[in-house]
Hints:
Mean pLDDT: 94
Number of domains: 2
Structural class: alpha+beta
Oligomer: single chain
Strand content: 35-45%
Amino acid sequence: MPALSISHRTTYSYRFPVQLSPYRLLLRPREEPHLLLQNYHITVAPEARIAWTTDVFGNAVATVTVSKPTQRLEIISKVTVDLTSEPWPVFDIAASAASYPFPYDEREWKDLGALAVPQHPDPSGEFQKWIRGFVMGNPTDTLSLLKDLSAGVATHVTYQAREAEGTQSPLETLALRSGSCRDIAALFVEGVRVLGIGARAVSGYLYDPARNLLGSTGAGSTHAWVDVFLPGAGWIAFDPTNRTLGGANLIPVAVARDITQAMPVSGGFIGPADAFVSMDVAVNITEE
């Protein structure tokens, strides 16, 4: 695949000047074996101080501090990446994990920690019962089970773009039978953890030159999906919104235990509640 150029513009507008709190940006793609970062540049208007660090998950975090009150904040991220993921990947899963259930070795289990433990209350056991319904046998093929779960989530939940902030809980999405890509990712990652398998939420970009994938606007947009850890193969990308496996159309920016920890841009302001007018996001992905 040719190099991809990604432009991500976020604009906040206010009725009158407000004092902005520091903004947290997760916009710099993560370099991985199949993703090479060629260049990256970020600009902010009005003039701001930009400080870089990494979080507990190894994501690159930029903190933007604007010193003077302003009626407008514009953040522009531009990056060029080489994406070489295969459209039909073959995963070298260790023999010990080829059939489910399987045990992680002691070090892997300890290191996965919360990434292998369900995070949401399920007092009636309804969610666990639904997830366990995908286990067709004991033992059963691990990768086939995960594919079935991804397809089952996509069949049960209708994709629906949602402008409201926040993420639905897995039980909410299960009951509503609809959700955004981040809601669907949150449902899938919890389901994988119910099975005792390590998983993490991922936010980034979906490259869709054919314009036929769910969650995409034009040739590309922000997106959410899930990485599942299988011994031997490592982290495998699952996009349950589109029932796809592997990272051929995915550019990861941030990984986290919970998708709410991987918001591309987050921050606030000090001033009257009615000062806020709008937030606009525009993403454009093109081949170099």
